[in-house]
Amino acid sequence: MNEENYGDSMEATRNLQDQCKKYKYYHVTLAMKDGRTLDGIIEEVDADRVRVLVGEDVMEQEGEEEGDSRQFYDGYGRPRRRFRRFRRRAFPFASLAGLALLPYAAPYPYPYYPYYPQPYYPYPYY
User: Fold this and answer.
1) Is residue 102 left, alpha or beta, with left meaning phi > 0 and alpha meaning psi from -120 to 50?
2) Per-residue model confidence (pLDDT) at position 108
3) What residue numbers bound the domain in which 95 lies?
4) pLDDT per position in the chain (126 positions), as tens?
5) Rounded to whole angstroms, how far apart are CA atoms 6 and 12?
6) Buried (b) or exposed (e) across 10-36, using 16+ Cβ within 10 A?
């Protein structure tokens, strides 16, 4: 490995580290060098690794013997409940290829409704 490649890789690692510090406590997408993508919340940034709360989907387990016929619906036609669990994992900066914020849609801008004064009718209404 020559000096230029080593300097470029150190600069890329430093840029990823700065980006991780910037997005600390944000929900991000991590792209790994082996092709995997993960989503999670950056919790801690060290000199050589980043700690992330990685989200995983968990389905409600009611009966394993029933097979796949009730995979997504319980016996009454309701969809089964789905949970999201976060586990703490550490990733070295050498295994990260990229980092991006998860795109959340901005809420619909509600129009301003001006105040319309109602005519005053004293009680009782005649």
Assistant:
1) beta
2) 66
3) 3-56+85-101
4) 455 666 677 888 888 899 999 999 999 999 999 999 999 999 999 999 999 999 988 876 655 545 555 555 556 666 667 788 999 999 999 898 888 888 776 666 666 666 666 666 666 665
5) 10
6) eeebeebbebbeebeeeebebeeeeee
Domain CATH for 14:
2.30.30.100
Residue 12 included in any domain: yes
Residue 74 lies in a domain: no
CB 99 within 8 A of CB 23: yes
Per the structure, the count of domains in the chain is 1
- Going by C-alpha positions, the residue among 81, 85, 79, 23 that lies closest to residue 55 is 85
Give CA–CA dist 44/46, Å, rounded: 7
CA-angle at 82, arms to 81 and 84, nearest 5°: 145
Bridge partners for 59 per DSSP? 82
The answer as to whether 76 is a domain residue is: no
